[in-house]
Amino acid sequence: MEDKNPPTKPRVVCCIGDIHGHITKLQNLWSNLETCIDPSDFSTALIIFLGDYCDRGADTHKVLNFLISLPSKYPKQTHVYLSGNHDFSFGAFLGVLPSPIDGSEFKETWKEYEMNEEREGWYKGEGFENMHLQGRIWAGNHTLNGIECKGSIYDAAPTFESYGVPHGSAELMKAVPDEHKKFLADLVWIHEEDDVCIKTEEGIKSCKLIAVHAGLEKNKAVEEQIKTLKAKDTRISKVEPLSGRKNVWEIPQELTRTPTIVVSGHHGKLHIEGLRLVIDEGGGLEDNPVAAVVLPSMKVVRDTDRLVK
Q: Where, if anywhere, are coiled coils annotated (predicted)?
């Protein structure tokens, strides 16, 4: 007898690592994804960008234009744009972050780290008086252990220059188009999916997926973290799931009870261990590739791949 309910084909999910202003790498990676994924699957894929669209590379302006254009060019795809710590800080400088939920002022975020103000060269120009801490650091001037940063700790100078203004200039607030400001304002801090398939040693497994730029803190209640991230709680001086390192590397123990994929960028490496996926092979560096991982196949695709249709 014919099966009236054949198994549905798992939806393709593309998780794309940090881009950091490298438009040519992004265009080449997108072309390679389009080449190696079945056209009908690609046209309906879930595309998750893992954050850090700006800084380091020369073409942040063009990268944001590319990302903003995707929903109209690929209307059947679903596009998720996560905030990275660099994007958070860019948005903080432009004044597009949501106001603190308790009615406090952004200058309250300076207090925890104010002993670092001079060493990190925080921004003191126009509009700094009530700017979130990360915006001040992002637009500041800093030399790291004798090595010149590109403007600041965040290497933000190329972002300013991509909009035609020098690093640290308040003119950036006027130079950035409204659609770019809206894009930065709308970035989500976390994304959850309930039914994502992934190839494992035991075969194809259906899992929950959590995507967050750096990862979830190992020793904090997951539900509490998710609530804070969904609320975009800007009272926090440094949002660890967007900017942490060792403390967000592992999957929190409570998520191992129900199979949960945790996917991030941020860490400057490609690391796949069980259901923990870290996709940031480029780290924003000129000579490194921008990579993506395609689910359920777990295929790694890079901008440097030479694929033929």
A: none
